[in-house]
Amino acid sequence: MNDLAEQFDATWFRFRAAVDDLGDAQMESPTRVGWTAKEMLGHLGFWLEATEGVIVAIFRGEPLRDDFAFESGYVPDPDAPWPTADVHNAREASWARSRSAAEVVARLDAGHAVFTSVLEALRADELTDDRYRNYVDHMCSEFDAHLEELQDLLLTA
């Protein structure tokens, strides 16, 4: 495992432990930012899945595989601009709202597997490229911020 994958996994394990501590009622409870925990996890699953697109299409400038799609059914249109984060977040929260907590957590775990496999396949030159390092730093920051929201929910149990 390279240092970028290790960096994210340290964040991931803290976050995932908090997810395991959530009860069914807490999964349906709103966090301080307004989403339920389940909706938050759905949006995070999407952003983990998006890693392949970021690394392959944006950073490397290579085409995505023909069957590239997101668990929510979203398929990027190569001829249209990438929607804003708010558009993605709203769509993915909506997807999670109608799913069971187990299904949403399974997507989150599958997204983590995608994220980790993409990071572990980085070339030596990519491991020292600031774009990749900044991307992983950003993802760690996102998960740490959402961890605080989960911890708030756990304190109210």
Brief summary:
This protein is mainly α and 157 residues long. It is built from 8 helices and no strands. It has one domain: Four Helix Bundle (Hemerythrin (Met), subunit A) (Up-down Bundle), CATH 1.20.120.
Instruction: Provide the low-confidence segments as ranges.
Output: none
Shape: globular
CATH class: Mainly Alpha
Discrete helix count: 8
Q: Please identify, by name, the CATH architecture.
A: Up-down Bundle
* Secondary-structure element series: HHHHHHHH
Superfamily at the CATH H level?
A: dinb family like domain
Question: Overview of this structure, please?
Answer:
The chain has 157 residues and is mostly helical. The chain contains eight helices and no strands. It has one domain: Four Helix Bundle (Hemerythrin (Met), subunit A) (Up-down Bundle).
